[in-house]
Amino acid sequence: MDGDIAKLPEIVEIAEEYDLITYVDDAHGSGVLGKGAGTVKHFGLSDRIDFQIGTLSKAIGVVGGYVAGSNQLIEWLKLRSRPFLFSTALPPASIAACIASVDILMKDEELIQQLWANGDFLKSELSRLGFNVGHSETPITPCIIGDEVTTQQFSQRLYEEGVYAKAIVFPTVPKGTGRIRNMPTAAHTREMLEQVVSIYEKVGKEMSLI
User: Fold this and answer.
1) Rounded to whole angstroms, how far apart are CA atoms 168 and 19?
2) Where is each Aminotransferase class I/classII large domain found (predicted)?
C-alpha cells in the first residue's frame, strides 16, 4: 500500500539457506520495475526464483494473470492447482491484447519512463504542500492522513472536486494510518497532474490538513 519494494535479495538468501521455495506475487511490479519485467528482473534474480505470479489487469491493462516458473513446477501446478483445474481460458481477444501490451513494453521504455516521471512529480508536489507521502520507492504515491473517518471524508471531497483517489483504512492498513492511495499512470499529462495537485491543496486547506 505504500509503494515500497520487498527486500527480495535477502528473502532469496534465506530461502536458499533453508531449501525453501521462493514465490513472488508481483502484481504491482509487472510492467513497472525491471524495465517492465517486474521485481525479480529488477534485482537480477530470474534464475533464483521458483515462481513469479502477476496480474494482467494493472500495468498490462487487460484482464487475467500469469504464473512463470520452471517447466517442472508449471507442470506440477497444472496437475495440482484447483483454481487452474476448474477455471476457463481467457477469451482470444484478451490474450491478443495482453501479447500486444507486453510487446509494447519490451520494444520501448518510453511509457515506463513517463510513468516514473509522473510518480516522482506527484510525490514531490504533494510533499511540497505538506502532505505525508511516506517512503514510496515506486510510482504508487500514498498520502497518509491518519484518522480513518477523516481519510474517507478527504477521499470523498477529492472525488467531488474531480479526483478519484481511494481511501485505504484499517484493517487494510494499521489503525490510525489511513491514507489516500494515488496511482499515476503513463497516460497522465503534466497538466492533469498539476490539476490534481491544485485540488489536493484546495481540499487539504479546507479540511485543515495542511
Assistant:
1) 36
2) 1-197
CB 61 within 8 A of CB 88: no
The grid coordinates listed for 142 are 500514498
User: Which domains does the chain show, CATH number per domain?
Assistant: 8-107 (3.40.640.10), 110-207 (3.90.1150.10)
Looking from the CA of 183 toward its CB, the CA atoms found within 13 Å total: 12
Question: Can you give the pTM of this predicted structure?
Answer: 0.89
Spatial separation of the C-alpha atoms in residues 178 and 148, rounded to whole Å: 5
> pLDDT of 141-194, one tens digit each?
999 999 999 999 999 999 999 999 999 999 999 999 999 999 999 999 999 999
Task: List beta partners, residue 66.
Answer: 54
Q: Which residues pair with 24 in a beta bridge?
A: 52
Q: How far apart are the first and last CA of the chain?
A: 22
Residue 202's φ and ψ, nearest 5 degrees, are -60, -50
